[in-house]
Amino acid sequence: MLTNYYCENCEIKTETSICPICGNRTKSLLRIYWCKECNIPIIDYDNHNVDHHLESISSDIRPVFPEERLLLELILDQPFKYVNSSCWRLPNGIYFIDGKKVKIVIKNLKDLDDNLIRKKYKELSEKNLKMSKVPFEKYIHRFVEENNNRYEYLSNEAIEYLSSKVTEYDFNSMFVSFSGGKDSTVTSDLVIRTLGTPNVIHIFGDTTLEFPETYEYIKRYKQDHRLTPMMNAKNKEKSFYDLCETIGPPSRVMRWCCTVFKTGAITRNINSMFKNKTRILAFHGIRRAESLSRSKYDRESDSPKITKQKVISPIIDWFDCDVWLYILTREIDFNDAYRLGFSRVGCWCCPNNSFWSEFLSKIHHADEFYKFRDILLDNAIKIGKPDPEEYVDSGAWKAKQGGNGIDYAHKQVVSFKPCATDENSFNYELQKPIDDNLYELFKPFGEINYELGNKRLNEVVVLDRNNNIIIKLQGKKGQNELKISITNLPIANAKNIKDAKRKIECQLTKFQMCLNCSACMSVCRFSAIKIKLENEKLTYRVDEKKCVHCYECINHFTSGCYLKKVLATKD
C-alpha cells in the first residue's frame, strides 16, 4: 500500500488526499529520492527494489527530454555538456542532472539573443537527437523499471475506480474531455482500458490558440485511434485578435479567453451531442497537484454548468512524476511541446504562462510570440502606460484589471432618469436601438406578452407565474428610448424596487454589451439560451420551454454581464 498522505485530524496515513474516516483533505507525504547508484529519481522510498543509497530531493519531478536539454546547454553556452547525463527538472524550475542541481536565472532569459539561440538550436537539433538517443533511453528505461511498483498501484487503482463508475451509465452517454495535454492523454488511455473499447467519444476543446504541437498531436492521435470518435468543440464565430483589439488582451485576473473560446464552445458541443440523454458521464484529467485552485476539486462532482452531467477525475491524486511514469511505462505517444520543455500545454498566449514558457514560445513559436507582443504593446499605449515595453516585457500586463482606456467599456453605462409621475418607472437612454434581443433578455424574469400591453405606447409586459404583470416595457424598435415600469414584486427574487431595478439593469447592460462571449449559455444549466452571430448580426434567444426562471443568467456575473466584469472601470 502506498500511503502518501497524512490526515492531521485523525493522525493517520492514507492512500488518497481525502481521509476515509473524517472526509477532510489530507497532506501529501510524497517525496522524490535520488538513487546515486542508478542515477535516476525514485518515487517514494518504499518503491525501490534494491538497497541503494537514496537522497530526498523534492516533492515532484519530471523528465527532461533531449530537445529541452539542448536548449538548456545553449543558454549556458555549453552545447552537448549533458548529452550523456540523466536530466530531470524539479517543480521550482531547477534542473537536477546526475544528482546535482543546475540553476538558470529565468528573469535573465529576456536579455539573451533569441535569434542566435534559435539559429544554433536548428543547426544542432539533428545531431543532438542522434547523440542523445542511447543515453536518454537508458535512463528512462531504468526509471520505469525501478518505479514499476508505483505504476502498477496507480494504474490498477484508477481502473478499479473507473470500473465502479461506468456501470451506472449508458456507453453512449460518456465522453473524455481531451485537451491534447499529458493528463487528458493518460485519462483517455485509462478509460479505453477500463471500457475495453476505443469507441468512447472524445471532445477536443479547440480554443484556436493551441500550440502548433498540440494540433500535430491531435492529428496523430486520430490516426492511431481510428475507432475513437474525436469531436472538435470550437468557437468559429470569434477571433482572438479582434477581441483583443475590442476589449483588450486577457489577464490573470480576467481570462475572458477561457470563457469565449473554451467553456462556451465545449458547453454548446455537449448540449448538442447529448441533448437526448438524461445522464452524462465526463472523464476529466484534472489533478489536485496542478494548482492551488484545483487542489480543492473533488474526484467526483456534478457539473456546475450542465444539470445532467457528472464529472469524474480518475488521476486527481497523481503528481507530475506519476503521469510521466505512466506515459513512459505504457510508451504512449504524447504532445511534443513537452519535449521542448513546456511543463503545461494549453494556449500559447495564456497570461498564466510562466516566464520560462514565454521564453520557450519566443524560441519555438517566434511568429506567434511577436505578433501577440505587438498586440500587448498597442494595448499598453492605448491605456496610457508610460513605458509600454517595460510594461509588457516585465509581465505587468498579466495583472491588468478592468477596462480603463478601452472604448468598448463605455457600453456598460446604463443611463436613466426617474419618471416624474411614477417613482417605480425609469426612463433609459440605451446605447443601441431596441430590437427583439431586448425582449428575449427579459424572458428569464417571466413570460413575455405582446398583447396585454398598450399598443399605442409600444408596450410589452412581463408576467409572473400567476399571470400578474410585474414589468412594463415601453419603447419602439429602432429607437434608443426605453421606459420600464415595475408594477409588482418580487422580481427575480428581489423584494424591493431598488434590487429589482438593479436586476433589470443587469439585462440592459447585457443588451448593450453583448459580443456573443457565450458566458450566458455556459452558466445556464438547462440549455435555454442560444446566441448566434451571423453576418455581424447578433441573435439572442431564450427558449421558454427550457427556462425554469432560476435567474442564474441574471445573477451570476457582476451587473449581469461577463463583459462588464471584464471591463469594469474605476470611474
Please describe what this structure looks like.
This protein has 571 residues and is α+β, with helices and mostly antiparallel strands. 35% of the residues lie in helices and 18% in strands. The strands form six sheets. The chain has a six-stranded mixed beta sheet with strand order 13-12-11-14-16-15. Strands 17-18-22-21-20-19 form a six-stranded antiparallel beta sheet, covered by helices on one side. The longest helix is centred in the N-terminal third of the chain and has 33 residues, at 114-146.
Outline:
By secondary structure, the protein is an alpha+beta fold.
Helix content class: 25-40%
Strand arrangement in the largest pleated sheet: 13-12-11-14-16-15
Average pLDDT rating: 91
Spans where pLDDT lies below 50 across 5 or more residues: none
Percentage of residues in strands:
15-25%
Structural class of the helix and strand makeup? alpha+beta
Instruction: Indicate the overall shape.
Output: globular
DSSP helical segment count:
17
Query: What's the alpha carbon Rg, rounded to whole Å?
Result: 28 Å
**What distance lies between the first and last C-alpha atoms, to the nearest angstrom?**
59 Å
**Biggest sheet architecture:** 6 strands, mixed
- Overall number of strands: 24
